[in-house]
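Note to self: keep these together.
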Amino acid sequence: MVIRINDILTAVAEYYKISLRDLLGRRRFIELARPRQVAMYLATLHTKKTLAQIGREFGKDHTTVVHAVRRIEELIKHDDKLAEDIMFLTQQLSHRNTA
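Structure:
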C-alpha cells in the first residue's frame, strides 16, 4: 500500500473542509495552518519522502516540516480531538489505498 502526498492533501482538505489551494498556500490563519501541519505530519509518517521532498511538495522549506511535525507531536499529547483527527485521517488513507 503506497500513500502519496496527494492522497494526504486530498484527505486533509476534505476533512477540514478547505481547498487544496488554501492547504498549500502561505496564509497562516490557524484554520489553515493546523491542517497544513497535520498534512505534513502525516506525510512524514506515511511516505518515504525526505523532509526536503515533503517541504517542496508543500512549497515550504524542510525546517517548516520539522516545526510542523514537532508541533503536532506536542499537541496530540494534550489534545484528544487532534489525536482523533490524526487517527481518523490515517484510517481514511489506509482505506482509500485498499479500495
